[in-house]
Each structure stands twice: as C-alpha cells, then as structure tokens.
Amino acid sequence: MTNTANLAPKNKRFANLAVFGLVGLAALGWLALYNILEPFANWLAFGVLALPQESRLGEALAFFFYDVPKIILLLGGMIFLITTLRSFFSPEQTRAWLGGKREGLGNFLAAALGVVTPFCSCSAVPLFIGFVESGIPLGVTFSFLTAAPVINEVALVLLFGLFGWQVAGLYLLSGLAIAIIAGVLIGRLNLERYVEDFVWQVKNNGQSVVGYKPTWYERLKNSWQSTQEIVGKVWLYVILGIAVGAGIHGYVPESALAGILGKNAWWSVPAAVILGVPLYSNAAGIIPIVSALMEKGAALGTVLAFMMSVVGLSLPELIILRRVLKPQLIAVFMVIVSLAIIFTGYLFNWVL
Prior knowledge:
By secondary structure, the chain is mostly helical. It has a domain at 90-199 and 233-352. The chain is 75% helix and 0% strand.
C-alpha cells in the first residue's frame, strides 16, 4: 500500500479530490436508499409474503424489515462522521485542554469533550491515568468519563433519526447535566483516597509526542475502514435488538407496557434504571427496543432512563475502572449517576 506521506503534492491533491468525490457519491446513494426503505419493507411483508396488514405477524415483520436496514444505515453514517471527527483529536490533546481549568468550567468542558471524543471502555484506564498524570481534578475527570458513555454517539444519532431533534436534544442536554453534576459532586466529596495508589505514582516522562497529521485521503480512508470494522462487530446486536423490538411492536399489548413504563406508574423510572444497569447492551441494539416501547405507550422519560442506565453504567466499563478505582469510589459514582438518571426520567415524564 502506498503511503500518502511520500506522494508529491499534486498526487496528494488528486487523491483528496478522488476520495471526496467517492464520499459524495456514497452520500447520495445513502440518501436514496434511506428514502425507499419503508415502501420496500411494506412491499416485502404485505406483498411478497402476502400477510394481512392488520395481522400481528405482518406488523412485526414490516417493522423488522424496515428497521434493520434503517438502523444499519444510520449506524454506518454516524460511525463514518464521528470517526472522521475523532481523527482531529487525541488523548494527549484532550488531557491538555482539560488541565488547569476551574471547577464548573472544567466539568463543562470535560463533559463536552466526552461527547465529541467518545473513547471506548477499553480506553478508560489509560485515559484516567493520563488525566491524573496531567493534574486534572478528579471531579473533572469523572465528568469526562460519565459523558462519554451516557451521551452515546450511536444513541444520539439514532434518536434523531427515529424521534426527531427535540428528543435527541433533550437526551444530549440531560446527559451533559448528569456528567457535570456527577463530576462536581465527586470533586466536592474529596474522594482521591479511593483512587488506587499506583495511579498517583505514575510519572509523566516529560516527552512531547508530535503526532503525524494525516491527509484528508487518510482520514476518510481510515473512517471507512473503521465503519466496516465496527458495523461488522455490532450488526448482530442490531438485528437481535430489532427482533425484540419487532416482537414488542407486533405482539405485546399496549396496555401492559403502558402500565409498567407509563407515567402513571411512579415506580417505573427507578425500576427501569435498576433493570438497565446489569443489562449491558450495544447502544445500536437498545434503540430499536426503545422505539418499540414508545410506540406501545411507554413514557419517554422512563424509556430514556432505561436506555441511559444500560449504556451509561455498563458492567464492562465498571469492571475495567476497578483497576484504577477502589470499590467505594465506584459505588459513589454509580449512586450519583443513577440518581441523576432517575431525576431526568421523572423530569421528562413531567414535562412531556
């Protein structure tokens, strides 16, 4: 494979123009395909399979045939855009931007960076050590670590596609508020003693690493490769989640879900959070279930609380963080975030 760093400037410009053209054609194809999904799904379920339109099986299959390609398209487009954006950031830059900021402003900046630099759970430990190494306050660090999973980029884009900008915006604002509040509270409680001792002993070697600045060709090529890799890993979660959602859509009585997750059940929000904490799931898999629950009469706040607990308090990330945090601090983190999610659920149910 030819390294674009060794290409002449003219060849670099040609490579950039070529890849921009391919991306533009792909975007047009994406839009065209997205617009024909619903009529195709109805034709397949009610035309090819000849199922009655009012039947439960017909409605479930039409839901499944429509949502599988829809979620895959949204997921692929989102991953491509986010990966391209993340090519402009690095963990070192993130730590540098957060260092030396005051409480409040630092928490806000950390939460905002957690949204646009959504590092995966496997990055939690080195990021945490790097933040401590840079002298970033513990509370500011937790605002970042809270925002990254709670404001899941997959969930945000899919909520926008499924429910519109209002719901997606509420999800974003509530996630930011949770991250900021959690970070401020943890900072005020002075819980540094519950960080594992070896973390404080890590020393910065003082070396400045100058990263290579990729060309647009390299950024977009890497984004495409990442999209293929990630979609290849999560497509099964998407199909399983949509299958559950299709079953709910076609067969679960509306009155049953409205009674469990509706506004009239005062205990539904904390129950949803308690249920969601151990149920780790890929965000792309949980969104179809959220969509089906809301169509069946579930309250928006309750469903969002369930989703945020599933993606924001995942067991894998907590297990990884145990390497650098003592159980007491993990417990405080879980309690604060859980209470904030419960409050958000009640607030949405009351407002909407």
